[in-house]
Specification:
The protein has 209 residues and is mostly beta strands. It contains no helices and eleven strands. An eleven-stranded antiparallel sheet has the order 1-2-3-4-5-6-7-8-9-10-11, with no helix packed on it.
Length: 209
């Protein structure tokens, strides 16, 4: 499936300094069997976005490409992947020019036995901001569990975000988040238990302020 895209819209039209945006691009989705993966499917999106305002305070161009893919691996695994790149040019301040690249994947293992069903997902997300005062590199490994047995449901997840940034973008950060949700259904009643964990560690290293 293929389609074209054209958008033109105005924001802040009642402020005296409206922001005009034009978007031109294409979308494509369907089978990715040509990659040698018979069960693979995905989507490709590419577009250019131009934004400017009446007073000349905003003059920005973005060129974006996004690709996502999902495919079964054997009888019990499923692999998803995504790639995106955004090249941003600021005509008023070149220090804000940047190219942001993101790459991620997740592998899910499903299982079932009797009344028990569940899935375990391992994932990794990489993000790189190249150029300008926002230059940074981020890496996020994550794990998630979903499990159900009769009236019982358990969901758990853990993410670790490791951010390395240049001086002008701020200090290096390491952020850990975890979540746990237990749910029990009995007749018309429902009981639940939820717990969340958040921890952030600021590293004032040699490459940061």
């Amino acid at each position: 499936k293929h389609s074209g895209r054209y958008q033109s819209y105005e924001e802040r039209w009642d402020s005296g300094n409206p922001l005009d945006t034009v978007v031109i691009g294409i979308d494509a989705s369907g089978s990715f069997a040509f990659l040698g993966l018979p069960g693979a499917s995905g989507r490709l999106r590419a577009y250019r976005q131009e934004s400017s305002d009446e007073f000349g305070n905003v003059d920005r161009n973005d060129n974006v490409i996004d690709v996502s893919l999902t495919t079964p691996v054997g009888s019990a695994f499923n692999l998803t992947g995504d790639f995106s790149m955004r090249d941003q040019t600021n005509e008023l301040d070149s220090s804000l020019d940047a190219t942001t690249t993101e790459l991620g994947f997740a592998l899910t293992r499903s299982f079932s036995k009797g009344d028990s069903r569940g899935a375990i997902t391992l994932g990794l997300q990489y993000r790189d901001i190249d150029g300008g005062i926002r230059e940074a590199m981020e890496l996020t490994p994550r794990v998630a569990l979903n499990f159900s047995h009769g009236p019982h449901t358990l969901r758990a997840s853990y993410d670790f975000l490791d951010q390395h940034r240049v001086v002008t973008a701020g200090p290096d950060l390491q952020t850990s988040t975890a979540a746990l949700l237990y749910d029990l259904r009995w007749k018309q009643h429902e009981f639940g238990l939820e717990a969340n964990y958040f921890d952030r560690d600021i590293d004032l290293g040699e490459n940061t302020v």
